[in-house]
Amino acid sequence: MKNFFQRNIRRIVFGVIATTLVVGGLSACGHHRDHLWGANVTQEQFAEKRDKMVDRAASKLDLNAEQKKLLSVVGDKMFEQRKAMIGQTIDPRAEIKSLIAGPKFDTAKAQTLITDKTSVMQAKSPETLAALAAFYDSLNATQQQKVRDLMEGRHGWFGRG
After folding, report:
1. Which of 47, 55, 70, 102 could pair with 135 in a Cys bridge, judged by C-beta atoms 3.0 to 4.6 Å apart?
2. Could you give the CA distance from residue 133 to residue 139 in angstroms, rounded to a whole number?
3. pLDDT at 90
């Protein structure tokens, strides 16, 4: 047995490393749906994430307290609009799956779904746009130019910075 291990030590080591990499990769990929931005994110979870994003934007744009507050309002309005678009469903994908569950595509249900979503979008958009406009209008010219530059992608090495 000792002779077997001495001759095949490289194969054993490479096999253990390959197995570890495969198992580690599969376990890492197995948790990709556990992120915070799922359909059932709570108001508290969103507020925590929103505060982090507001702080990050504040550091990049040199925002004052009033501008931070306006940006938080934009985030809240977007969250409200998103929740309204999702509706009361626990699993939004189940709605889509139900369209193709039978032998034929349920066009009437699909049209109702689209009509509901667009009416919610039309109803909630003015509030969201007003909040976004109030935030953007509160920025000075330098901050507005920084926003434009960020939108253009001119913000540092490899899109970071």
Report:
1. 70
2. 10
3. 72
